């Protein structure tokens, strides 16, 4: 037996962080639509309220700042109490920052980006792996970025955090593969979610065309295209991938 996922017909438990906006919100709706039971968290309370209204009562929707160990523990304790297992975990919560050259980046900005984007993934992975080891099965998808595999001028802290996520992904894949826990990363290029809308608002007029000019497809990904990839990477059809960092970038990293 290769996998010990839920019995055929049983509903999977899918945990997703940063579910209140962007990729996370769209993915939550899609997972719910295909019948998964969801454990969702976000740091933004108001987005969680509207998520609860949208998805109905059978899912766990929990306020949690993934950069804080005690909050993460509270979230995972609630997930296990409610559902008893985690079949799929998507570590998606993340933040970007205003553009700055490395030597000009504020130390506090550096710390905050690393806390949310890297420590947040680390804290969640620890709990996910421990639970999945007990189950003898489970799959983790970390949402990294093309900035996890390429340099990202003016986004040094973000770039370092996402390289870190790719490193954690590879390490965990090697350490836990034999126990039935698979760990992969998705590395999207730019996509017009609220995170990128904010970057564009803060940037100059030519910023968007500078972003897309470098991409062979000459456009950003639609958020739905990224979410299609998330859904497939977390599906039962994806059973042998482990330790991969999949770029979804319109050809940017092929240049
Ligand atoms: P978004 O801002 O629309 O959504 C991110 C969500 O994460 C928000 O709901 C936010 O409240 C939540 N969040 C932020 N900090 C948190 C914390 N400390 N604890 C819990 N939740 C927190 O952004 P998005 O574009 O959907 O980004 C999702 C992920 O995709 C991020 O990790 C981001 O780095 C990554 N990514 C985005 C793009 C892009 O172009 N949009 C490209 C590559 C990677």
What's the arrangement of secondary structure elements?
Layout: E1 13-17, H1 22-33, E2 37-42, H2 45-55, E3 60-63, H3 69-83, E4 88-91, H4 107-135, E5 138-143, H5 156-176, E6 181-188, H6 194-202, H7 207-213, H8 223-233, E7 245-248
Parallel strand pairs: 1-2, 1-4, 2-3, 4-5, 5-6, 6-7
Helix pairs in contact: 1-8, 3-4, 4-5
Main features:
8 helices, 7-stranded parallel beta sheet, alpha/beta, 255 residues
Report on the architecture of this protein.
The structure is a single chain. This protein is an alpha/beta fold and 255 residues long. It contains 8 helices and 7 strands. It has helices at 22-33, 45-55, 69-83, 107-135, 156-176, 194-202, 207-213, 223-233; strands at residues 13-17, 37-42, 60-63, 88-91, 138-143, 181-188, 245-248. Strands 3-2-1-4-5-6-7 form a 7-stranded parallel sheet, sandwiched between helices. Helix 3 (69-83) packs parallel to helix 4 (107-135) and helix 4 (107-135) runs parallel beside helix 5 (156-176). The longest helix is centred in the middle third of the chain and has 29 residues, at 107-135. The protein is globular. It starts with 12 loop residues before the first strand and ends in a 7-residue tail after the last strand. The mean pLDDT is 95. Bound molecules: nicotinamide-adenine-dinucleotide (NAD).
Question: In a few lines, what is going on in this structure?
Answer:
The protein has helices at 22-33, 45-55, 69-83, 107-135, 156-176, 194-202, 207-213, 223-233, and strands spanning 13-17, 37-42, 60-63, 88-91, 138-143, 181-188, 245-248. The protein has 255 residues and is α/β, with parallel strands linked by helices.
